[in-house]
Amino acid sequence: MDKNQLQVEKQHKLSFRLKLVAGAVALIGLAVFIMFTIQSFTVGAEDPGTLYFNILTVHPKINIYFTWVTAIFCYAILFQFWKITDEIGKDNSFSKENARHFHQMTILSVLVAVQYLIRIVAFIFLGETTMISVYYRAGMSLIFMLFAVLTEALSGLVLNAYLMKQEQDLTI
Hints:
The chain has five helices and no strands. The chain is an all-alpha fold and 172 residues long.
């Protein structure tokens, strides 16, 4: 096998592993969102988990809509990641496409962060909130904003690498 074939095989393996991770995250996320939905409709059960859940969510039936909006955005982020792994498998890691996919992940992450802030305001407006739920939602908003900063930085790095590669190809 020559050096190019080894590189292509290495990229295919990396792409496959990343897709396995994305698939596992998707399945775990689905399980969490389904359990959250079931928990929302069984409020009042007498177990300690339900008590903690009630403190965190305050109004589970309204909160479930926000949760599934978050799920949709999270799966859209995973879909963009899947597209990135496709490009990696094609040995095209530093491409305009990957820069665009990272940027789209940024936008989706910001939307999730804003959605968590809207939840805080909505539940305060409804008069149905606890400090722990505010801290939780503010923390989740912060995590998604940090993710947005990281994905935007990656977008810029990938785009710069692509432009450098293009410039180098032109000079040769």
